[in-house]
């Protein structure tokens, strides 16, 4: 399954984003827009970190990979001519696959520090599993979380809403927290090539 034909598909996916990056106008250029969002969040709004949250276990090593590439490349405190920057640059990248992160640090993202989030979802599962007596398969349940988390970050819940749902008021979360969602049709070699190239050009 990992012969040259697979590598060719991976390279073709990366090449498609290379071409998009070099030809698309800035207002519709995916990597340019993502890069500008990072500059805005870090240098203008002062948010020091970014969470990379793929909703598939197959991308469990994506966040550490982007962490290395991004923090190594953009981890500078001076301009190209050696002058100290008068603003923060570069971000602390971290992340975990979807529900792993939900059980470890999403509370902080919703209620504590503002941490811009990159949610990455896959439309078609590689291996959907239906459990006995379950109407919804595991992938559909995962995707429900993928759509719900950015929604919750954007809109939050007031104490009054929580009270009407019989939820403790200390679980209030304000909303208005930045996130973006990337939704891939499938997770094959071509799409992985695209995803890595999107982040590379963003950096």
Residue runs with pLDDT of under 50 for 5 or more positions: none
Give the number of helices: 8
What is the 3D form?
flat
CATH class: Alpha Beta
CATH superfamily caption: Glucose-6-phosphate isomerase like protein, domain 1
Question: What percentage of amino acids are in beta strands?
Answer: 5-15%
State the helical fraction.
Answer: 40-55%
Protein name: Glucose-6-phosphate isomerase
InterPro entries: G6P_Isomerase, SIS_dom_sf, SIS_PGI_2
Family: Belongs to the GPI family.
GO biological process, one term: glycolytic process
Walkthrough of the structure:
With 203 residues, the protein is an alpha/beta fold. The protein has one domain (4-76, 88-124, 134-202): Glucose-6-phosphate isomerase like protein, domain 1 (Rossmann fold, 3-Layer(aba) Sandwich). Helix content is 48%, strand content 10%. It has a 4-stranded parallel β-sheet with strand order 2-1-3-4, with helices on both faces. The protein is flat, with a radius of gyration of 19 Å. The mean pLDDT is 90.
